[in-house]
Amino acid sequence: MSVSSEIPDLPEAGTERPEAAGRTATPARRQTGFGALLVRLHFYAGVLVAPFLLVAAVTGLLYTFTPQFDSLVYGKELTVAHTADSARPLADQVAAARTAHPKGTLTAVRPGTGDETTQVDFALPELGEKAHTVYVDPYTGKVTGQLTTWYGSTPLKTWLDDLHRNLHLGTTGRYYSEIAASWLWVLVLGGLILWWRRQRGNRTARRLLLPDRAAKKGVRRTRSWHATTGLWLALGLLVLSATGLTWSRFAGAHFGEALDALRSGTPGVSTTLSGTSAGAAGGHHAGHHGSHTAETVDPAAVDGVLETARRDGLDGPVEIGVPQDTTTAWTVSQTRNLWPVGRDSVAVDASTDKVVDRVDFADWPVLSKLTRWGINAHMGTLFGLVNQILLAVLAVGLTCVILWGYRMWWQRRPTRADRRAPLGAPPARGAWRGMPIWALAVGVVVVVAVGWALPLFGIPLAGFLVIGTVRRRASADRTHTVR
Question: What is d(CA 9, CA 417) in angstroms, rounded to the nearest whole number?
Fold first, then answer.
């Protein structure tokens, strides 16, 4: 929703002005106060921020279908063509992965179920946050492949994720996506208000929700498609804006601080052991007990750890976190992203095969649950294929809304010799002068607060104000010179 719905209609580009045709022109409606201020904000934000939103929509559309892309590109690594009655011991699968990848530190194991392979992660210092993941057929114990992954994501998924988040520009590139998320909700809400105000006196469901197909070709028809499509997409776009901000660089940091202050951060199990050793293997694998030492953890304990977690109720897909010494507990965490989300976690003492700590998703703070659900919805995993289709519709719809907005801008450009403006004219300046003093005072406080919470909303807004001031002074100087 990038260009205003309340900007007074100007003659279409290239058409004859009413005065030239011998008719008296009807004065264009001039907005004052809040409406005019909103028009101006919507105009500048639409013109200048829409390119960021367009890039986010296109890259997000590509990322939405990463499960299908992964199946096509990495089918050999991710899936097996057959299943047996039962899987081989997980320790044997880890041993096969270690044979194929003798270097690195074993950090995590994701047991395969059904037609999925088991994934075994090895960390190396040169990989940073990434890892080498070895894929093992759980029924035969044979290694099917190896990839460099990022928190379990394949190289293709990681590449598309980086493209969407930062355009492969690192920290600098994250500014683009945060600007898009910080302004999307402003444009959506502003566009809805402007469309509602424009329909005053004739607010029927049809006029609000459906484009005016009877309108002649030109800015009025384009505007109706722009506004009504934006209205249908509004709720989904607001959700994308809010969820995108939760893990952005600046706004996301403020959000995390707020969750911590409200004691609503994501809880985690305690992996600190006391009293008895975690052991070099599971309780039924190693019968020794004693004080904690920094012994190397025996991967053979993995079967006992998994069995303990299953017995404690952790079903479905899980990730097993491997400790680096026997003074730390193993962790087993559900990784189900589909609704209903499964995120229960347990810490297991491998020397006794007992759960020493547990955190259930049902006990998470409400804000933490909402954050988790929102992230999954944003990534297209909460409702599976339905979620993916909805995200695709939002991405394509937002792209159309942006293009229609720019088309309106082009259609409204003045073409008369003494008013020529190839890129279009913005709404009239000085809208704030029509606002009541109390409204200005409240508005300034609200804008400053929002600008602090969302820095990449506040900074561009300040830039818009500077642009407007410079243009106003330049116009005043030209007027003074002419006089």
Answer: 19
Write out the DSSP string of 284-323.
TT-----S---PPPPGGGHHHHHHHHHHTT--SSEEEEPP
| Three-state SS at 210 | coil
d(CA 359, CA 8): 58
The answer to whether 222 and 410 are in contact (CB under 8 A) is no
**pLDDT tens digits, one per residue of 419-468:** 555 545 555 555 566 667 877 788 789 889 999 999 999 998 887 777 76
Give yes or no for a contact between 163 and 233, defined as CB atoms under 8 angstroms apart: no
Please tell me the distance from the alpha carbon of residue 433 to that of residue 33, in angstroms, as a whole number. 7
Helix (H) or strand (E) segment spanning residue 452: helix 437-453
Residues above pLDDT 90, as percent of the chain: 65
Cβ-contact 164, 178 below 8 angstroms = no
Confidence band, pLDDT 50/70/90 cuts, at residue 34: confident
3-class DSSP state for residue 169? coil
Does the pTM surpass 0.70? The reply is: yes
Identify the residue whose tokens are 């934000």. Answer: 45
**Count of Cβ atoms closer than 10 Å to residue 277 Cβ:** 20
Beta bridge mates, 332: 320, 346
